[in-house]
Amino acid sequence: MPTQATANGSPTIHLRAVDGYIITPDGASIYIWGYRDETGRAAQLPGPTIIVNQGDTVTIKLTNELRENVSLMFPGQNGVFRLTNRGAVPVGPIYENGRLVSLTDYVPPRGTVIYQFVASQPGTYIYHSGTEINKQVPMGLYGVIIVRPAGFDPLDPATWSAYGPETDTEFDREYLLVVAEIDPVLHEAVRLGKPYRPSTYRPRYWTINGRCAPDTMLPDRATYLPHQPYGSMIMAEPGERVLIRYIGAGCDAHPLHPHGNHTRVVALDGRLLRNGTQDLSHKHFTVLVGPGQTYDQIFQWDGLGYDPVTNPIPTPIPNLRNQAIGDVGWTMWSGSPYLGQKGDIPIGVTSLNVTGEYYFMLHSHSEPQITNWGEFPGGMMTMIGIFPVGTLGPEVGRLQRNSRANSTRERR
Amino acid sequence: MTFVQVRYGATDSFITMPDGSVHYIFGFVDLTGVPENEIFARRGKATLLAPLLEVRVGDRVELTLTNLGMPQRPDLDDSHTIHWHGFPNQISLWDGVPETSIAVPVGRDFIYYYEPKDPGTYMYHCHFEPVEHIQMGMVGPLIARPADYNPANPLFKTAYGAGTGTEFDREYFLLISELDPVAHEQVHRVQEFDWSEYRPAYWLINGRAYPDTLHTAPDGDLSQQPYHSLIQANAGEKVLLRFINLGFEEHAITILGLPLRIIGRDAQLLRGLHGEDLSHWRDVLYFGAGQTVDVIIEPQQPALYPLFNRGYHKNTNAGATPGGMMTHITVYPAGTLPPQPGPGF
Known about the structure:
The structure holds two protein chains of two kinds.
Chain A: E1 12-23, E2 29-36, E3 50-53, E4 57-64, E5 70-71, E6 81-84, E7 87-90, E8 94-96, E9 99-102, E10 106-107, E11 112-118, E12 123-128, H1 133-139, E13 142-148, E14 173-182, H2 184-192, E15 205-208, E16 234-236, E17 242-248, E18 254-258, E19 263-268, E20 271-272, E21 274-275, E22 278-279, E23 282-284, E24 287-289, E25 294-299, E26 330-331, E27 350-351, E28 358-364, E29 381-386
Parallel strand pairs in A: 1-4, 3-13, 14-17, 16-29, 26-27
Antiparallel strand pairs in A: 1-2, 4-11, 5-10, 6-7, 6-11, 8-9, 12-13, 14-15, 17-25, 18-24, 18-28, 19-20, 19-23, 19-25, 21-22, 28-29
Chain B: E1 3-16, E2 22-30, E3 53-56, E4 60-67, E5 83-85, E6 109-114, E7 120-125, H1 130-135, E8 139-145, E9 170-179, H2 181-188, E10 202-205, E11 231-234, E12 239-245, E13 251-255, E14 260-265, E15 268-269, E16 280-282, E17 284-287, E18 292-297, E19 303-309, E20 326-332
Parallel strand pairs in B: 1-4, 3-8, 9-12, 11-20
Antiparallel strand pairs in B: 1-2, 4-6, 5-7, 7-8, 9-10, 12-18, 13-17, 13-19, 14-15, 14-16, 14-18, 19-20
């Protein structure tokens, strides 16, 4: 059952900092720390996506089930308080015996702390631990907060926008891509209680929504990825406005490059790219997502080539015996140049194509990051699927409050 | 509107760094107009960079890719592709991603077809095992001219079309990348390379490291590195610099003494939704892998201006200084240089 915010203006979310394991496509099992909500049993990566409405007074309870102090930071939110018996006190850096032990109010093991803030601005934000940050954040203690603009109604597509009416941020479907890195040496050191020197940070895995390719393309809530519930396959139909939110949760920068078309960057760090009436949005084919940054973008694919009757561009297919298809044993190609058509695929090659859709890769152009410990394909890579008109249901590309799903129907 | 037909071969060769070290590369070789019975002789003659692909909005472009195989690696039966990085509204058939369409096996051809819609600075590269094939050198610059481009008329000699404020007198492309000699050595010796160990030791502009970046004359040692990056202009001229990052790192490029007017990024004129002018000035151009940036400089004083990487350790060749990602801009008194015949000359 969803336990996330309700739209009554004062949602309360209960997170627990816990440990657990994730798996990578090359067979590794990696110990993590992460957040879970009431629906989960162990840490999930990333933490539950929190969706609230602009103007909500958001209360987040954090219970610490780890062996050391832990906390929550809300970059981009103004006026974060901790609720105490004596009322609300502003959070701040904690010094003990002259040493900075946390960037924000923390909770010791087995305790609970309550944070509260007013979500005053719509947009895409990150939350993560503010304690032992160079260990706890790479260990997986991070997640995303989405603040809906005033007037947003999950049941009325006419109200769907990232930043409200008249902001040119309307969308038909939306996707969240949290990017980060994993240095397995850190994770193993933490699991064994051994020391780790942060200056030796050397990622071997690069993740989107806590998964490495090709797992990124698996559905949300895939049962065989129990602690990595969010997929990152982007699916849309031609002409649809697709809101893609990038969040940099790691320590490195990642140049994310979608094939198929440019994206129009409409907001940075939860702030609309507008100066009064002046529009500052811009189209890019690669966006460099730095640590802690969030980018909101509109992607649209409305290219030629999807009409075999008018045949707007010549598309001769050579004899496939002379071409290489599915060198890795599978292909996502339909065998046809046309959208909605399927053609022949050589015998012995598995086509994962459903209904003649086009696939466009979306990946880090710092190409060592699209490997799993050096082995291509892997890492920070997913696909954008452009499906024939009328083939995608309304539930595709819907972010909902239930933490265990990224794209099924949002509930009130 | 022109029907452009080009043909590139995918093969291998060697390149040379200024310290005399020789590095094995994969790459493309220009086969345009080469008779069929001479194609085989182009094996092992890849160049870094791959040939400049220059097209115009409205053109019909047929690009034939021929996989010539790797004479140095006869065991290697990798396919290859051409990915036009940034082509708007691409269909998957021409996108050059083996996992989502077609790749070209050894000894075979495939014809890519494009109708460029948006002017600007792009890049192309092989997308088969891209971490290996890009680092090994299968990269090239790509310029799409606006439909109204006319180099004979200053009002129409522009990056993004007449009236966009992007007029220029000369233009240069600077494709920047890195070279990890261990990766190249491992690939040459048929050994696995762990790409998470990627650590470049050379930083390149147009496939060369300083001071080779300055060598304008044909040079035997640089036979497979055809593009210098010595930028030359007359005082008072507008010089368009098309930066392409096809390395794997972020880079910070600066020109001592010349501020940079950024007029385009990622093959898009810097304009807001309602036509707002978003062009801006920078002293350091910091950009990431897979991005392109169009810059106009207007040097007023005849002088020598150094262009280098503000990440100073990247101005080295395997640790020796000076080297790496550095070149010069030589500015002559007005009227000294004749008009430029084409980009980069």
